[in-house]
Amino acid sequence: MLGFTADIGIDLGTANVLVFVKGKGIVLNEPSVVAINKENGRIIAVGTEARRMLGRTPGSIVAIRPLQDGVIADYEVTEKMLRYFIAKVNGRKPFFRPRIMVCIPAQVTNVEERAVLQAALQAGAGQAYIIEEPLAAAIGAGLNIAEPRGKMVIDIGGGTTDIAVLSLGGIVCSRSLRVGGDEFDEAIARYVRKKFNLIIGERSAEELKIRVGTACPDGNAEKAVEVRGRDMVTGLPGSANITGRDVYEAIQEPLAAIVGAVKEVLEHTPPELASDIAERGIVMTGGGALLHGIDLLLNKEVGVPVSIADDPLSCVAIGTGRALGMLHILNGSHFPNRRRHRASVGR
Q1: pLDDT averaged over the chain?
Q2: What local confidence, expressed as pLDDT, does residue 335 receive?
Q3: Does residue 103 have a pLDDT over 90?
Q4: What share of the chain is helix, strand, coil (3-state, %, to 5)?
Q5: More reliable by pLDDT, 196 or 12
Q6: Rounded distance between C-alpha atoms, residue 315 and residue 292, angstroms
Q7: Helices 252-267 & 181-196, crossing angle to 10 degrees?
Q8: Whole-angstrom distance, CA of residue 98 vs CA of residue 77
Q9: Which of 13-17, 27-31, 136-140, 150-154 shows the lowest mean pLDDT across its residues?
Q10: In contact, 110 and 82? CB cutoff 8 Å
Q11: Which has the higher per-residue pLDDT, 21 or 330?
């Protein structure tokens, strides 16, 4: 059980939930998956245990992701999942209800914001705040967001990609795409089905992306991995050797969407801030930043230096937790009766 004044930051991601506790760091990192008994609505498993059930459950049990494209798709299940994770790190019956900061994509609706805040409060928060993912990512990456200098962050998560230009503790210009790691996985599965007549699951597609995926057709393109699935012709188990070039071809559409959105944000960036970005470069965070060669691709396409943050998977969670100690300088956090003010590039 945590101390009396625990501040908790939650990266409520489409693929994973990470929890940061002040003074302890990342204390939980589990998949955003819940297994439910369809007959009585009872939760069977949450997180890692539930993810093992994906695609392997009997008819009476369904393993679902309650968040889709970075937002709450099933409010009731999300609340139960949050309650489970908060209890896991804060004790089942905490004497004090913690302050909780939850991150959200940069351009969610007011309804989606309220759903996240309400879910956190119902799940046990004494006070609940939300912060936009690019701000949290920048804080977690160690950037000084308070200074009057332009900084650009690209956060590629499981369900969304958030691109933002930051200055003076807030977001100046941003774009949120409902394209992320899950979209890459789906594109890979479609490609394998079309080219190799092999149906594979999302976990197999993700493994291909991690092992041989590349955003640049360089030396990694000739690496090959055997993947198993179901043969579309015979209906029997089958396999195929998939190369990095295959994966590269499969993910061209989501890659092009991300590159186009980065260019769009840069086109809407004020000249002085654009000059700062040209000098200091772009910082990438999120699991998608680990895709081989994606920094090289963006550097080539936009002509700006691109670097990957240390521990990109944890940046948003770390920044979300740290932000509770920076409320006085943040212009992008949501507080009761206070709205954010920032320019947005088209959704």
Answers
A1: 86
A2: 44
A3: no
A4: 35, 30, 35
A5: 196
A6: 19
A7: 150
A8: 21
A9: 13-17
A10: no
A11: 21
Q: Residue 212 in contact with residue 232, Cβ under 8 Å?
A: no
Say if residue 250's pLDDT is above 50: yes
User: Which tokens in the block code for residue 292?
Assistant: 């081989």
Q: Which residue has the tokens 């004020």?
A: 270
The model's pTM is 0.84
CA dihedral 189, 190, 193, 195 (to 10 degrees): -110
Q: Which long-range contacts (CB under 8 A, 24 or more apart) does 28-31 make?
A: 28/85, 28/88, 28/89, 29/313, 29/314, 29/317, 30/85
How is residue 60 written in tokens?
């009476």
Phi, psi of 270 (to 5 degrees): -55, 145
Strands (E), the chain: 7-12, 16-21, 25-31, 34-37, 43-46, 61-64, 67-68, 71-72, 99-104, 127-132, 151-156, 161-167, 170-177, 198-199, 224-231, 237-243, 282-285, 306-308, 333-334
Query: Domains in the chain, ordered, with CATH?
Result: 7-133 (3.30.420.40), 181-252 (3.90.640.10)
pLDDT reported for residue 219: 61
Our CA dihedral for 142, 144, 146, 152, rounded to 10 degrees, sits at -90
CA–CA dist 151, 15 (Å, integer): 26
Tokens at 228, concatenated: 């198993």
Question: Is the Cβ–Cβ distance between 345 and 162 less than 8 Å?
Answer: no
The predicted model gives 199-218 an average pLDDT of 91
Q: Residue 338 gets which letter from DSSP?
A: B
Name the packing angle between helices 75-90 and 110-122 (round to 10°). 40
